[in-house]
Specification:
It contains 5 helices and 7 strands; from the N terminus they run E-E-E-E-H-H-H-E-H-E-H-E. The chain is α/β, with parallel strands linked by helices. It has one domain. The chain has a 5-stranded mixed β-sheet. Strand 6, helix 5 and strand 7 form a beta-alpha-beta unit.
Length: 156
């Protein structure tokens, strides 16, 4: 079993920080989209370090007690033979921590605006403005220009 998440996932937050997995169990970002290029982040030292721990089976950077995928062996944790994406499968088979492709699955968490007010999550509508809005626009432009063309899955 191996986790494919750091070999395909790119999660962008409002401050520009980028994670290769959920920050609840992989605490440190791999970079910042507002100060670094997509390539610097995707194949940077921190990203390569995380991938190497997956490849060597130590999962040293991961929190296996908090990660439900590692705990249950599901989601992005699968048998190598079950990996559908050819590029991801080849990267894992060849032990690559520097990847020849861009992120495939984007989780875009950089804009908390919402035009719905409901008791489940908030009682008022939320709209970014000022500095927050400008930052969200800048991130959106970078995502549209550099990440969306290669993405196979986008989550907002």
């Amino acid at each position: 079993m191996i986790c494919t998440r750091p070999f395909e996932w790119y999660e962008v937050h409002p401050d520009g920080s980028v994670f290769l997995c959920c920050p609840a169990w992989l605490k440190r970002p791999v970079g910042n989209l507002l100060t670094q290029s997509v390539e610097e982040i995707w194949n940077g030292a921190r990203a390569r370090e995380i991938r190497k721990t997956i490849l060597n089976g130590s999962y040293h950077c991961c929190n296996s007690k908090r990660c439900p995928f590692l705990a249950n062996g599901n989601g992005p944790v699968m048998l190598r033979e079950a990996i559908a994406d050819r590029e991801v499968r080849l990267a894992l088979e060849n032990g690559l921590s520097t990847l020849p492709y861009r992120p495939k699955k984007l989780n875009l968490c950089f804009d908390h605006s919402c035009n719905i007010a409901c008791p489940t999550c908030r009682t008022v509508k939320r709209q970014a403005n000022g500095v927050e809005l400008e930052r969200a626009r800048r991130i959106a432009e970078l995502v549209l220009d550099q990440l969306i063309p290669n993405a196979t899955e986008v989550t907002l």
